[in-house]
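User: Let's play a game. I give you a shape written as tokens, and you guess the letters that built it. Ready? Here's round one.
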């Protein structure tokens, strides 16, 4: 299913550049293009060099929420907008009073347009995050010649994904940096480690698995493979590389001992995501509502202003729990180091 035991994760928001994906592929990894936060036109341009290279690759899409926010979350969102006003004023930014309406393509991350693109111009593999593609869509993608993967964070999610007919699963532990792929309410405390989560999903479904979350060394990667995965997905391990599109502020923060812990927070986007703990995380994690993408739109001007000002205390510094192992330098060196360690 996966042509390499190492997968270069799709990191949306500009981090996974085409250059990163191509360099990872050339070094022996399976590369993903990140479809999140891109229009169909931007996604087509992003993957054109990968198509031209002729190798195997994947594309990742965000599955949008259907329907409006529940009234309680909508009220919490309004309170949160008011809470953000002090930070916005300090940055010289303005918190938008409203989010794009549900029918606006930005609210669905251009889902319909990108699905149409990838049905008309198929890619080798398509993965879904934040939810499941309907079984009928999975069947259409298969007919077009595309392998389909679902991102899951628990055994119940894995079982639900298997019912849609997908070919494989990316099993993401909460140690992962950036957004959680979760789409079902948590049931219990969750798996203590990525090894135990992979083993639990392996026992529940017969699909090929890739393990993800906090994999910072080849030794951890070997253990995840031994637990039942066919491959491991690297995200934070590639953040500081030369080809990564992450901001220099973000790359530098990952190497700065001033940042000593990570936390899962909804403060930046309204969806749980693991980041380095900074002032924004400390101030707003307790009150940030469960409202994605509305919080993402609300904080976007603040994040842009913070980046322009070089203010790391206000930025979303995504990082998995193994962030201290992330190395600078070429992507190829990181990939080849992992492959050698396997």
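Assistant: Ready! My guess for every position:
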């Amino acid at each position: 299913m996966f042509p390499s035991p190492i997968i270069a994760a799709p990191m949306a928001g500009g981090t996974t550049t085409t250059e990163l994906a191509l360099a990872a592929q050339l070094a022996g990894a399976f590369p993903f293009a990140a479809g999140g936060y891109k229009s169909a036109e931007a996604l087509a341009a992003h993957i054109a060099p990968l198509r031209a290279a002729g190798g195997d690759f994947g594309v990742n899409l965000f599955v949008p929420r259907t329907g409006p926010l529940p009234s309680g979350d909508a009220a919490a969102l309004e309170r949160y907008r008011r809470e953000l006003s002090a930070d916005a004023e300090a940055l010289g930014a303005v918190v938008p009073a409203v989010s794009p309406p549900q029918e606006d393509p930005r609210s669905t991350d251009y889902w319909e347009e990108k699905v149409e693109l990838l049905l008309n111009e198929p890619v080798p593999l398509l993965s879904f995050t934040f939810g499941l593609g309907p079984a009928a869509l999975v069947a259409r993608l298969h007919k077009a010649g595309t392998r389909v993967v679902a991102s899951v964070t628990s055994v119940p999610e894995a079982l639900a994904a298997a019912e849609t007919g997908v070919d494989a699963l990316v099993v993401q532990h909460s140690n992962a940096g950036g957004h959680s792929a979760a789409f079902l309410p948590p049931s219990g405390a969750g798996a203590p480690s990525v090894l135990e989560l992979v083993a639990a999903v392996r026992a529940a479904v017969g699909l090929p698995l890739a393990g993800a979350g906090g994999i910072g060394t080849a030794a951890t990667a070997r253990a995840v493979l031994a637990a039942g995965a066919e491959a491991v997905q690297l995200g934070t391990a590639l953040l500081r590389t030369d080809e990564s599109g992450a901001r220099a502020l973000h790359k530098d923060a990952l190497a700065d001992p001033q940042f000593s812990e990570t936390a899962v927070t909804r403060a930046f986007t309204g969806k749980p995501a693991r980041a380095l703990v900074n002032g924004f995380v400390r101030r707003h994690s307790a009150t940030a509502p469960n409202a994605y993408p509305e919080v993402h739109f609300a904080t976007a001007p603040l994040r842009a202003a913070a980046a322009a000002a070089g203010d790391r205390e206000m930025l979303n510094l995504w990082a998995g729990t193994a962030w201290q192992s992330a190395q600078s330098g070429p992507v190829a060196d990181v990939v080849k180091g992992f492959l050698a360690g396997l």
